[in-house]
Request: fold
Amino acid sequence: MGAVMGTFSSLQTKQRRPSKDKIEDELEMTIVCHRPEGLEQLEAQTNFTKRELQVLYRGFKNECPSGVVNEETFKQIYAQFFPHGDASTYAHYLFNAFDTTQTGSVKFEDFVTALSILLRGTVHEKLRWTFNLYDINKDGYINKEEMIDIVKAIYDMMGKYTYPVLKEDTPRQHVDVFFQKMDKNKDGIVTLDEFLESCQEDDNIMRSLQLFQNVM
Amino acid sequence: MAAGVAAWLPFARAAAIGWMPVANCPMPLAPADKNKRQDELIILNVSGRRFQTWRTTLERYPDTLLGSTEKEFFFNEDTKEYFFDRDPEVFRCVLNFYRTGKLHYPRYECISAYDDELAFYGILPEIIGDCCYEEYKDRKRENAERLMDDNDSENNQESMPSLSFRQTMWRAFENPHTSTLALVFYYVTGFFIAVSVITNVVETVPCGTVPGSKELPCGERYSVAFFCLDTACVMIFTVEYLLRLFAPPSRYRFIRSVMSIIDVVAIMPYYIGLVMTDNEDVSGAFVTLRVFRVFRIFKFSRHSQGLRILGYTLKSCASELGFLLFSLTMAIIIFATVMFYAEKGSSASKFTSIPASFWYTIVTMTTLGYGDMVPKTIAGKIFGSICSLSGVLVIALPVPVIVSNFSRIYHQNQRADKRRAQKKARLARIRVAKTGSSNAYLHSKRNGLLNEALELTGTPEDEHMGKTTSLIESQHHHLLHCLEKTTGLSYLVDDPLLSVRTSTIKNHEFIDEQMFEQNCMESSMQNYPSTRSPSLSSHPGLTTTCCSRRSKKTTHLPNSNLPATRLRSMQELSTIHIQGSEQPSLTTRPPPTTSK
Reply:
């Protein structure tokens, strides 16, 4: 009889224990609520007008009500633009480039500062930002391994179904071409000055940097 | 695109600057943002209630009424607002969809009113968020069933188009209310079943004495009369069975069904009885066969809906019942053993063996207490009382548990099946949307390239080629195009001819006819991708809204026309999924998409 009850109750035990990690995560997200500095300060610091900042913030706040973007959200957002491939590696590098203070989360100020450089900055600033992006370990130099990682991440975003089919050493070849152009003294690393100089010599690059002028 | 995605597009495009130094070839031009207005508040007046929102909020979904230029038809010049003569309550949900990217279904709303409003505003119900989707689908199904029932009862009064004789018979058997003949047949068979059952019962009643012999049951006294009655009933049943055998569309399935087995079992004993001789040895078996005649009473289940439901209930609850039986058996065995050994000592004890004690245990536990077996020793009495007390618990407790278990498990199964089907449908939607969005890009690329090609070859441009996609879409496509240029690869295009043209036009490094053929062969062997990025599936809210908008636009299937969207069932969605996923890279070109 007790066995009867026991067996009946065992039928009812579903996994009702909620995962503790999820609860903690949610608590964390709700506690951390960041508000950006005033509009005037941001306007002074960036090259955006008040209206543009307002539009940017509305979009940002809609997606991230807590005021900060963490890497996961960043990756998800970026992945939606490249449905065929895997944008997570490139998004990771991008996140590190946005997160200048290396806190693990991107606040609205960081976001807007980076956008300001990319969309409204001088050529010099843009190139410097790009150099920072490529320099994964932030040591001031780009070596071949870092470049290969970046290029592989970019190729990953294309996905598998491309024409021509991506071969194993295509990224490496691509990086070799890049280094031939950028590395002036052929010492295997590219410094900021070499990078700036080489990019300014290349018309294609100069033109493409101006491509997104009218975004926003 | 979804609300969120559209807002982040400037960021994604800005981040594309990171590819520039790596690229080898020049980038394509960015789409020009014609008539770029400052963001303004627009007023939407819905039956007197004013809603205000930014223009860009509405333009997130350009293929809906509010997001496209269609709303200009509702612009009121005098008051400088957009006036809609519709329900303001539902409009609240619609506007929230634009704001948050999630469409919710308010529970108090009537389902058909809600559907009407969604159809008016050009929003697909499929993008209802997960929180409300189950409720929406349930209500929709209820409504559909109710309408179907109404339709059916209407149809029954109409005269059906000419069916074959066989089909009419089958319909008559299944629904006795279709024609008077069917009704007559129904009542006649019912009457004869009752007659047969009553004769079986009355046969055994003692009918008074015949002088010179002991009391006889009626069956033996008026054996001829009963035999005639029995024959008549069996003849009717046989005719009925044969008719039923002739009518159904699938005879094999009919023969296997429970009702037909019952019919056979009901009439078999008579024929076997006819065949067998009046032999002493087999008459015992003959008598047992007569027992089967009582199964005729089950034929009533055709006439009674309640019996059928009960049968189905028992069948579905079988495991619970089986378990109850098992636990009862355990208890019986335990107590029988105990009582046997307790009563072993007493003289003239009825508890001669453990199986003999089973009877006592069962009678006591079910609180019947016949009193034919009673314990005499003190230990026996103690254990006997424990047995009867526990009997109450054992019998009484599991019954409501079974009932509630049954209802819970039944609903759980239904919900699990529903969830599984919904999950499949949702994955299908996501898959379609992904292929849809890539198709959109490829279509626009193809159209752009065809434009170039046509210009090169000098043929007059086809009107359909110069399509306008929304600004956000063209910006997204430009982004993908930049990526292609950076890497030197290109997304696979559907049309093999076009791919050749692509390679020649773009002065691709890898122009080589043989290599191209090889590539095409390789790629046609591979299956079309199922979703690879886990990030997408983990954030279904954004994706479904983003991509199902695309799927409405780009996937052209025989089933997808706007009126049909309202009735888009699970089957249609899975059809879309199957068709979408079966598209190999070298299919014939689907018809060009039309976008608003």
